[in-house]
Amino acid sequence: MTSQYRVNYHLRAHKRDHLIEFIKGMLLTPFVLQTEPLSTAYTDIFTNIEELINEHRLLHATSNTTRLSKIVPTIGSFFTPLPLARAFLHTDRKVNHILGRKHVPPSFNDVRRILNTAQVMAIAPQLKLVTFDGDMTLYADGANFEQDSLLTAQLVGLLKRGVAVAIVTAAGYGHNAAKYETRLSGLLKSFELARLSHKEVAQFFVLGGECNFLFKCNKQYRLEYVETPQLWTADQIARTLDVAEGELADCVRRMGIDAQIVRKPRAVGLVPRESLTREQLDECALSTQVALLSLQGSSDPGAAPVPFCAFNGGNDCWVDIGNKLIGVRIVQRLVCSPAHATLHIGDQFLSTGNDISTRTACCTCWIINPEETLAILTELDSFLPSDTPVVAAIDAVVAANANANASADADAGAGADTSS
Asked: What is the similarity comment for this entry (predicted)?
């Protein structure tokens, strides 16, 4: 049994977040023992973990070993303190009701949400930049950012507050601004309805292909391509993509997958003709990671001669030149936002995802769908300084969207009457 457990653990390691697993394990003991009062036991645990994080922040720059790094060897940097005890009480009261549960202990998702809340509590006073993943963060996978999305008002509110906003997405359409405008048409229309000033929309950016294609919004609420320095030679890019393409083709052969291999200037992907399991897509991503790291003589995709991102996209698998770590840092330099004032929100923080690299550049929130993005932005809004008059602007967007929908329904109704 022990041997089988060890095998299963290693097979599942790419699906784990070791900090969350550590916290979850700590919370399990008082739950199993039914420690009374449970609220005190949980709060004490979160307070102790806060202290471990604070110590790690203090010593990490000068020492490779901290108490927390001994417990969680994969731990990275924390750019702000995390008020976990306060976040736990806030989340328990408003969302999860953990203290009222007798039979279900605190789960992975419970801890993930508490970490998210602690992060927005900590970063709110100095927030300068929020970056977002696209698919499954702002809109459904493969969908567009529609005008009636409740997230449009939240993003307008951030820009009204003077907070820069960027969408850092794997979607790669080269220099073709029109394709990105189509995906983001509802959001750009909402900027216009809210009458955002040139100064405000100039703080909105889109980075496609992880970090390869930069666009900014102009005063006509259109996207303009921004030339950026070439970080790698054409030969380096071609060699990397050749190896990735070969490995994906080998995955197709080994697993008998019915899929198309798609090659782009800065990416190569496996696009299935039939639905694949998560395990098959993880295998493609991990196989390609190993092949490229072996080629480049590095154990870290971000430190390789040509940084890359090989990830499970949910329905497909892609390998991009560069990664979101580089993408976020490009925007940070543009708006002069340090790590402790930058927040990245995304859904892909496992080792086969493409958001995980951003943890090296800034603070992060791990969500699983656009509904959770809306919830965390609503929480963030409640913690931001309230001296900026953004509520009226948000209400205006919501009202304008409602009017636009009502007009569209009326036009459709009139057309139906005419045709009959």
From this structure: Belongs to the ISN1 family.
Claim to verify: residue 168 and residue 265 sit in the same structural domain: no
Contact 283, 298 (CB under 8 A): no
The pLDDT tens digits of the residues spanning 342-394 come to 999 999 898 778 899 999 999 999 999 999 999 999 999 999 987 554 555 55
Three-state SS at 207? strand
- Indicate the pTM of the whole model: 0.86
Residues 132 and 119 in one domain: no
SS3 category, 169? coil
What is the Cα Rg of the chain in Å?
23
**Joined tokens for residue 297:** 């003589």
Active-site residue list: 133, 135
Give the chain's mean pLDDT.
Answer: 88
- Do 131 and 101 share a domain, yes or no? no
Q: Do 364 and 119 meet the contact criterion of CB atoms below 8 Å apart? A: yes
Alpha-carbon distance of 263 to 267, in angstroms, equals: 6
**Considering its fold, how many domains does the chain have in total?**
3
Burial letters for 216-235: b for 16+ Cβ neighbours within 10 Å, e otherwise? bbeeebebebeeeeeebeee
Mean pLDDT of 85-93: 95
Q: Residue 60 carries which DSSP code?
A: T
Residues 6+ apart with CB under 8 A from 380: 120, 124, 127, 343
Which of 103-110's residues contact partners 24+ apart within 8 Å by CB, and which partners?
A: 105/24, 105/27, 105/28, 105/31, 105/32, 106/24, 106/27, 106/28, 106/31, 106/42, 107/24, 108/17, 108/20, 108/21, 108/24, 109/368, 110/24
